[in-house]
């Protein structure tokens, strides 16, 4: 039996594979503070959102979380749960920003994604693993890193989006 696929299916698969590769490569980067990563796969999410819309971005992100966790061996672990919570809140906030047509640039969308991803992870960590009020003292530090990395990945996404847009208009 052969399952029919569409061009959209192929697009999602290619973009998800790229996001998974970045996600897996990023796990090899050392982290000075546990849980702090640049989130460079967010570049792909933002680009997909800008080019193809929220629905495609949601598919790419969900596949990145699931397949990425299978590749690195963290599926259904606390790391997977935290990643899924962060991605879920991030997608919800990106969806809200997209639906409200706030006109956010790649940098703005990336900041929204990074901050909400960190907040989603933090809230799940507090709820499931460390329900202690002292944990909230870490939140400003974590959100500061999320903001910095959101600006970084947003800048990368903006540069790539500009090149993609220019390339589209030249053909």
Question: Mind sketching the topology for me?
Answer:
Layout: H1 7-26, H2 41-52, H3 54-72, H4 78-99, H5 106-129, H6 139-170
Helix pairs in contact: 1-2, 1-3, 2-3, 2-5, 2-6, 3-4, 4-5, 5-6
In short:
75% of the residues lie in helices and 0% in strands.
Description:
It comes from Ectothiorhodosinus mongolicus. The chain crosses the membrane at residues 12-33, 39-63, 75-98, 104-129, 141-161. With 171 residues, this protein is mainly α. The chain is 75% helix and 0% strand. It has helices at 7-26, 41-52, 54-72, 78-99, 106-129, 139-170. The longest helix is centred in the C-terminal third of the chain and has 32 residues, at 139-170. The termini are far apart.
CATH names the topology as Arp2/3 complex 21 kDa subunit ARPC3
Shape: globular
* CATH secondary-structure class: Mainly Alpha
Mean pLDDT: 91
The major β-sheet equals: none
How many domains in all? 1
Defining key terms:
transmembrane, mainly alpha, 0% strand, membrane, Arp2/3 complex 21 kDa subunit ARPC3, 171 residues
């Amino acid at each position: 039996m052969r399952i029919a696929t569409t061009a959209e299916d192929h697009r999602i698969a290619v973009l998800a594979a790229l996001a998974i590769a970045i996600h897996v490569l990023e796990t090899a980067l050392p982290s000075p503070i546990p849980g702090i990563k640049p989130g460079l796969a967010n570049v792909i999410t933002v680009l997909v959102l800008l080019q193809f819309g929220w629905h495609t971005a949601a598919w790419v992100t969900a596949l990145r979380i699931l397949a990425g966790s299978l590749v690195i061996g963290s599926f259904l672990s606390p790391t997977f749960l935290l990643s899924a919570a962060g991605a879920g809140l991030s997608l919800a906030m990106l969806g809200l920003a997209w639906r409200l047509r706030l006109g956010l640039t790649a940098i703005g969308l990336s900041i929204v994604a990074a901050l909400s991803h960190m907040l989603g992870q933090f809230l799940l960590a507090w709820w499931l693993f460390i329900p202690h009020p002292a944990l909230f003292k870490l939140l400003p530090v974590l959100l500061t890193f999320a903001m910095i990395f959101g600006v970084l990945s947003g800048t990368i996404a903006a540069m790539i989006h500009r090149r993609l847009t220019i390339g589209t208009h030249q053909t």
